[in-house]
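Running co-folding for zinc ion.
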Amino acid sequence: MNTITHGYLDWIKHLPANDADLATCTCLNCGATGLNYQYFGFEDSELGWKIVWCATCNVGIQISRTVIPESADALIEQVERERFLDHHKQLELIS
Ligand SMILES: [Zn+2]
């Protein structure tokens, strides 16, 4: 059972501006290095949301209303989102 040690704003302040830097960012919760991320979007919209998570302790943060970079591989189809959530059931998301 995880204990969530930090809140949403702590994470927002902690996370790097560039997604490329997430790979070397430490987890606020457990201190492990390297965070994963995934964008979720809508057809014909540059806005979506993003989940950033730590694969070590499975704590993550859900950031809503974010601009999806053109280079990002966002999940748009409902079935893709469901598959992602199905594969990441263990995540404890802060939002
Ligand atoms: Zn962690």
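Result summary
The longest strand covers residues 59-67.
The beta strands are 36-41, 47-53, 59-67, 92-94.
Job closed.
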